[in-house]
Structures are given as structure tokens and as C-alpha cells.
């Protein structure tokens, strides 16, 4: 029997490709980065499975892929799936939860520490030769904010949120507030966390971490009125998706001193535009969407995605089908 044809939109580790080749006829993008949209659409006529981490996977793409049965994303977030269009076409969508939780949580703690203790700003200061006698420097010029024993508010307390909570509460003795649509009693017990409304969380927290998925409900979730409620001494950390924030409102909050600083792994437009004012602010730590970017975790994600793909193509239920498309496999 012939193997199903799949297309892989970015370079994946050799061992993952070797596993896929046992089950599928694979073609992989061989350039740097990912193919252009037109380049991708031109590859899909015979393809039954797509391994990717970007999109959009929408009606236009599905129309160019008449044999497509599964799209396996090498990511936990799947806002690049048009789940309605996929459902209408019967195309299964899968993702890679759990395997990246600790790695992303490490990064969020790094952003909290780096922004509060001004690490990139002061690193630049030292390397520029500005740390010198006679410059009139005072102790206060180097002061930051303590992370330990501060109050952390997590908006979107899910898998990654819990991994952040563990580090913050057990490692840094932080007090924890969280806001979700629904309460998590076990989380409350484990981390002495208090569930609260969004407004109270914003008013009480020294660090506000946004960790929700990007959905129609969370689009521009953080707006001017929310930054206005935060403490002037507080830091805002976003590792969810850039579009969960009204970025202009964030820029203004930082420019006006409404909040003290920010740590951002994600932006409204990615790659971030070079003239984005956030890039000029010393009190903002910026990263190129690297939450899960370690070799080990990216390998685990790619292997999880490969198993999801192979299982779906073989007619077995993949381990991680996104919730909106589970009815296709049940
Ligand atoms: N920067 C990076 O590199 C990475 C970013 N991410 C992003 O992180 C997101 C979260 O991942 P993960 O923790 O695995 O997801 P989970 O689904 O486990 O957690 C998300 C939490 O958000 C809450 N939530 C969802 N909608 C809302 C809402 N409208 N208001 C308040 N809370 C809400 C959910 O609780 P409830 O349903 O009760 O509301 C849920 O507990 C991903 O979707 C992705 O976008 C993930 C990995 C890496
Ligand atoms: O942003 C990364 C993801 O896995 O989602």
C-alpha cells in the first residue's frame, strides 16, 4: 500500500523526519524559515497531512489541498487554525500541549527577573563603558524591584500558568492571584492561589502575566482601561500572543508611566517592526517569540506533532486533537 503524502513546512530534527519517513512519503521545505504563502499553497495538491507551526490554515488553503486529512501543529497555540473551515472540510487539527510547559515557564520567570532587575538595560550600561568613577552614579541608579515575596497575577492559569505558579510560589515565595473563566480548586490548594476578578488582579499585582490562548474572546483582552488599573510600580509580562494586547495602549501605558515596565515574548506583528516604539524603551525587555525554544523541547514538540500526524493518517485517534475538532475523531 502506498504511504500517505505529507508536507513539512520547516526543518525538523533528523530523528523526527526518520520516524515520519517510516509511515509517510515526506516532502520538507528545504529553505531557511518557512515557505511563502504562495509557495506553500503550490505544494498541497496531493498532500494528506501537513506538519507546520504557522498559518493561517483557512478556507483558501483547504481549497488548494483537496486530499488533506490532518494538520498537525508543532505548537500548543492553534490560533492559526480556522477551526470552522477545518471542521466543515473534516480536516483534523492537532497540537502539542504539556511538553513545553516548563520551558515556557522558565522564560516567563526570566522576563519577570530581567525586567524587574533591569538586566538588559544594565548589561548595556556596563558594556557601553558607562559604569565608571566620576560619573556621579548613586545606588538608586541601579535599583530594581524585588521579585521574591511580590504579588503575581496570572491571567490564563492553565498548563503553563501552573508551571509558572510552581516556580513563583515555591521558588520565589510569591503571593499568587489568578483569573480564568473558571476556578481551579486544586491549583488554589497547591499554590495558595486566590481566584479573583480581572480588575482586582490588576490592582493588586506587582507582576501581571498574560498566558491565555488567542481566541475571539481574548483578542485585545488587555486594553487601556486595564493598564490604567495596574500599579504604577507593576510590570506586565506577555508570553501568550501579541494580539491578546492592544499594543498601542501598552506603548502609551509605558510612555506615560502608567506601569513601570514590561517583558514581551510576543508582538502584534511578528517579526516585530523595527520602528516599533517598544524597541526603544529601556524598561521593556523584548524577545523574538522564543518561549519553547530549547533544542530538547523543540524536539519533544516535533516528535509529539509527528505522532499526532501519523496516528490521524492511520485512522487512529491522535493524542492531542484541538478541542473544537474533537468531534471529528470521536
Ligand atoms: N510565547 C511562546 O513561545 C508560547 C506561547 N504559548 C501561548 O500560551 C497559551 C496557553 O498555553 P497553555 O497554558 O498550554 O493553555 P491552557 O489551555 O492550558 O491554559 C490557558 C488558560 O487560559 C484560560 N482562558 C482561556 N480563555 C480565557 C478568557 N477569555 N479569560 C480568562 N482566561 C481564559 C483558560 O481557563 P478557562 O477556560 O477557565 O478560562 C486556561 O486555563 C497558548 O495558547 C499559546 O498562545 C504557548 C507556548 C509557547
Ligand atoms: O507559541 C508557541 C506555541 O507553542 O503555541
From TrEMBL:
Domain D-isomer specific 2-hydroxyacid dehydrogenase catalytic stretches: 6-322
Annotated signal peptide: none
InterPro entries assigned: D-isomer_2-hydroxyacid_DH, D-isomer_2_OHA_DH_cat_dom, D-isomer_DH_CS1, D-isomer_DH_NAD-bd, NAD(P)-bd_dom_sf
Pfam families associated with the record: 2-Hacid_dh, 2-Hacid_dh_C
CDD domains, per database record: GDH (cd05301)
Keyword Oxidoreductase attached: yes
Protein name: D-glycerate dehydrogenase
Organism: Paenibacillus gyeongsangnamensis
Lineage: Bacteria, Bacillati, Bacillota, Bacilli, Bacillales
Amino acid at each position: 500500500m502506498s504511504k500517505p503524502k505529507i508536507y513539512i513546512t520547516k526543518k525538523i530534527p533528523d530523528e523526527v523526519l526518520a520516524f515520519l519517513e517510516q509511515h509517510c512519503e515526506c516532502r520538507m521545505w528545504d529553505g531557511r524559515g518557512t515557505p511563502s504563502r504562495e509557495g506553500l499553497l503550490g505544494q498541497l495538491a496531493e498532500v494528506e497531512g501537513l506538519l507546520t507551526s504557522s498559518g493561517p490554515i483557512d478556507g483558501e488553503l483547504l481549497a488548494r489541498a483537496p486530499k488533506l486529512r490532518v494538520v498537525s501543529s508543532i505548537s500548543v497555540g492553534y490560533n492559526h487554525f480556522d477551526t470552522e473551515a477545518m471542521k466543515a472540510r473534516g480536516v483534523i487539527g492537532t497540537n502539542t500541549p504539556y511538553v513545553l510547559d516548563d520551558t515556557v515557564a522558565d522564560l516567563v520567570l526570566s522576563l519577570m527577573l530581567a525586567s524587574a532587575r533591569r538586566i538588559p538595560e544594565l548589561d548595556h550600561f556596563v558594556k557601553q563603558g558607562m559604569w565608571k568613577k566620576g560619573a556621579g552614579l548613586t545606588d538608586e541608579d541601579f535599583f530594581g524591584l524585588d521579585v521574591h515575596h511580590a504579588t503575581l497575577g496570572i491571567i490564563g492559569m492553565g498548563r503553563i500558568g501552573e508551571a509558572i505558579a510552581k516556580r513563583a510560589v515555591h521558588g520565589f515565595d510569591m503571593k499568587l492571584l489568578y483569573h480564568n473563566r473558571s476556578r481551579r480548586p486544586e491549583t488554589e490548594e497547591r499554590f495558595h492561589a486566590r481566584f479573583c476578578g480581572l480588575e482586582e488582579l490588576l490592582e493588586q499585582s506587582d507582576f501581571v502575566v498574560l498566558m491565555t490562548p488567542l481566541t475571539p474572546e481574548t483578542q485585545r483582552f488587555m486594553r487601556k482601561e486595564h493598564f490604567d488599573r495596574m500599579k504604577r510600580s507593576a510590570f506586565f509580562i506577555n508570553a501568550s500572543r501579541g494580539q491578546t494586547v492592544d499594543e498601542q495602549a501598552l506603548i502609551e501605558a509605558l510612555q506615560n508611566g502608567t506601569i513601570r515596565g514590561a517583558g514581551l515574548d510576543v508582538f502584534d506583528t511578528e517579526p516585530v517592526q523595527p520602528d516599533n516604539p517598544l524597541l526603544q524603551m529601556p524598561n521593556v525587555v523584548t524577545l523574538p517569540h522564543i518561549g519553547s525554544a530549547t533544542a530538547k523541547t523543540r524536539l519533544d514538540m516535533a516528535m509529539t506533532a509527528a505522532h499526532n500526524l501519523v496516528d490521524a493518517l492511520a485512522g487512529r485517534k491522535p493524542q492531542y486533537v484541538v478541542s473544537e475538532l474533537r468531534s471529528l475523531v470521536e
